[in-house]
Amino acid sequence: MPDADSFSCSLPLSRRRFLKSTALAGAALFLPAPLRADPYCPWPVVPPGPPVRIRGRVAARGRGLAGVAVTDGRTVVATEADGSFTLVADGNRPFVYCSIPAGYRIPQNPTGTARFYMPLRADARGEMTAHFDLEPLDGPDDRHAFLVLADPQTQDAYEM
Fold first, then answer.
1. What sections of 8-145 are H helices per DSSP?
2. Could you give the percent of the chain with pLDDT greater than 70?
3. Tens digit of each residue's pLDDT (9 = 90 or more) over 140-151
């Protein structure tokens, strides 16, 4: 008969394995209670809200922009040649968004955050108008900078 020590894990418990196991166990505590109780139970399906017909236009300096994606986060449409679009959105969605095409500046709120969205507010007829006015960039936008910050925790020369 095997002794109790033979059932232990054959890999030593390193700092890395300990932290990984602890993080996974800690993350599980923040899962919603129904999921912790029955992980195989399907999530409740939220029924869509009343449909909202959104008509609008994406333009720059008065000229419509073709092929720009507009979405409510669930449904996506592309603008026509004149920049116009019609999107039938889910009334439960909070915003309608416009994808910013290459060569155009990202609009900003007074606080400096990006403003590529509008609150989805339907009128009594279940309709809404959304116009996105974009500003062309002064120069090309093909040069990008990317900053990566990391905090590697190496244990030995092999991990270097």
1. 15-29, 33-37
2. 89
3. 888 878 888 888
**List of domains in the chain:** 51-136 (2.60.40.1120)
Q: How many CB atoms lie within 10 A of CB 119?
A: 9
Query: What predicted TM-score, i.e. pTM, was given to this entire model?
Result: 0.64
Q: Which amino acid is at 14?
A: S
What single-letter amino acid sits at 141?
Answer: D
CA 152 to each of CA 79, 147, 149, 159, 160: distance values in angstroms, whole numbers, following the listed order: 45, 16, 10, 10, 9
- The CA distance from 117 to 120, in Å, is 9
